[in-house]
Automatic annotation (TrEMBL):
Residues 71-82 have a biased composition (Polar residues). This is Uncharacterized protein. Keywords: Signal. Residues 28-50 have a biased composition (Basic and acidic residues).
């Protein structure tokens, strides 16, 4: 009875270790660019250069291309294509330019805030009310610009047109420019 129990435990451990090693291999394949959907080891070639101590798996791209022909009707704007990547790079550059404009406006507001704080320190009580209102307005504008800046990078990739319009409207409101 004890021998049967030991044999069953050994068999269970063998099944678990086999299952774990397959899962680890799939995870390794995913992280290192080989396909996890293919369980066939013929898709991978083992680079066993005798001069290097570290052999690595390499994906056999010739075999992959022959096994699954590329879909030529693929949209040029779909992820992974060169056109899509160029559009994304252009969008990121545009996001960065708008982000720089927001940072420039924040810098201007901070300089204006510092000037008003210095004036507030030396102002008479009649002027302090006006200066306090201006300081409050600058603080509110800074908050609007901080939110606009984070919106650029948080939501810009997924909905750039809307984010750009919102940020430009925020910039106009901070600059106190009316729509033409």
């Amino acid at each position: 009875m004890k021998n049967i129990y030991i044999i069953c435990c050994m068999a269970a451990l063998a099944v678990i270790s086999s299952s774990c090693s397959q899962q680890l291999q799939r995870r390794y394949d995913q992280r290192h660019g080989t396909s996890s959907s293919s369980r066939d080891d013929s898709d991978r070639s083992y680079d066993s250069d005798y001069r290097s101590n570290s052999g690595t798996y390499k994906r056999d791209y010739d075999r992959v291309l022959n096994d699954s022909p590329r879909n030529d009707s693929q949209n040029a704007g779909s992820p992974g294509t060169a056109d899509y990547n160029q559009q994304l790079i252009a969008q990121y550059q545009e996001m960065d330019k708008l982000g720089e404009v927001v940072l420039y406006e924040l810098d201007n507001l901070e300089n204006r805030y510092n000037v008003l704080i210095n004036e507030y320190r030396t102002a008479k009580s009649a002027q302090k009310g006006v200066l306090a209102d201006q300081l409050d307005r600058i603080s509110a504008d800074q908050l609007v610009l901080y939110r606009a800046y984070t919106n650029i990078y948080r939501n810009g990739k997924t909905n750039w047109v809307s984010v750009k319009r919102d940020v430009e409207n925020d910039l106009r409101s901070v600059r106190r420019v009316a729509d033409r």
